[in-house]
Amino acid sequence: MPQYIAKCKVWNLNNGAEQSYPLDNFEAKRGKTVEAFHIQVINLDRSVDRMARISKQLAAEGLNFHRLKATDGRTLSKVDLAHYSALRCLLYYGRRLSSGEIGCFRSHQRAAEAFLQSSREFGLVLEDDAEIPENFGKALDELAEQLRLHADDSWEAVNLGNAPKHDSHLQAIGRGFFGVSLVRAYVFPKRTTALLWSRRGAERFLKETRYIRAPVDQHLHSALSERGAGLASRPALIPHADLPSDINAEVDAASVRQVDKPSPWYRFRRAARKRSARRNRSKDKA
Questions:
Q1: Global confidence as pTM
Q2: Going by DSSP bridges, is the β-strand pair 157-159/194-198 parallel, antiparallel, or unpaired?
Q3: Which residues contact 114 (CB under 8 A, 6 or more apart)?
Q4: What is the pLDDT of residue 273?
Q5: pLDDT averaged over every residue in the chain
Q6: I need a surface site. Which of 86, 177, 210, 215 has the fewest CB within 10 A?
Q7: CB neighbours of 251 closer than 8 A, spacing ≥ 6?
Q8: Using an 8 Å Cβ cutoff, are 95 and 69 in contact?
Q9: CA atoms of 80 and 267, how far apart (whole Å)
């Protein structure tokens, strides 16, 4: 039965319950970080090796975290499906979602709920293919300081796993740290490997996703770009490991995805994002 041991603390990686993984002397080692960040790792019960890999990386940085049992697309409950509307997806996104995409979205909703139930200032949600860099704990301390300088801003989420592609899609707002810069993402990057929530952002995310109408990264890509409420690290502070996609492994994934065949709505959503980016960039320059 796979287990991971750190400082004489043992946790069972096959236990599907949401749980905390404490490390000895953690409070003393990471005083600021432990007070500021609620860290969660989304992981499917069957992805034991992935959990072992990221657990080892986080333990090496002395970081406390929670495992959030991912919603499995193969066993979606009535509650999970009640949040999904195939009609809304067709009208907004141009296609229905695969079971893996629904499970991924529900997992991120539950992670946002768990963060809001904590008393922490920031909620860091990691997918289990995240690649934790060296000195990550120190980087989080620096990131917290920079975000507090922008506490009056309306930022809702920081994408730490992907960066805006073009210079016109961003504006640096903080000093460089550990080889990355904090930027305002006028076009919020897709991919949800590593998302950092403000409490305001997590609340709004849950409020506006009562019904799922797009994959979670596509929803954030559009919603945060429209509001100008997204930040990012450039380059990505937490890249993704080269691991097979759990979402694309679902049996219905190929039938619903439209590779090289964008939906009829794609051009309209892209045009709306570009208009929002220009508007929000102009606001910041004014």
A1: 0.82
A2: antiparallel
A3: 18, 38, 40, 66, 68
A4: 65
A5: 82
A6: 210
A7: none
A8: no
A9: 30
In tens, the pLDDT along 165-224 reads 888 888 889 888 888 999 999 999 999 999 999 999 999 999 999 999 999 999 999 999
At residue 90, does pLDDT exceed 90? no
| Rounded CA separation 276/198 (Å) | 21
Higher pLDDT, 15 or 158: 158
Amino acid at 230: G
Q: What is the DSSP letter of 174?
A: S
Tokens 């657990």 found at: 55
Residue type present at position 41: V
Query: Which residue in 84, 138, 137 sits closest to 106, CA to CA?
Result: 84
| pLDDT for position 191 | 95
For 17-22, the CB contacts below 8 A with 24+ separation are 17/69, 18/66, 18/67, 18/68, 18/69, 18/114, 19/66, 19/67, 20/64, 20/65, 20/66, 21/55, 21/59, 21/64, 21/65, 21/66, 21/67, 22/64
pLDDT single digits (tens) 62-77: 999 999 999 999 999 9
Provide CB contacts within 8 A for 97, sequence distance 6+.
84, 86, 89, 105, 212, 214, 215, 256
Which ranges constitute the DSSP H helices of 127-265? Answer: 136-148, 199-208, 216-227, 253-256
**Exposed, middle or buried, 281 (CB in 10 Å: 0-12/13-18/19+)?**
middle
Can you read off the two tokens belonging to residue 98? 């695969």
Q: Are 66 and 19 in contact (CB under 8 A)?
A: yes
Matching residue, tokens 């603390």: 9
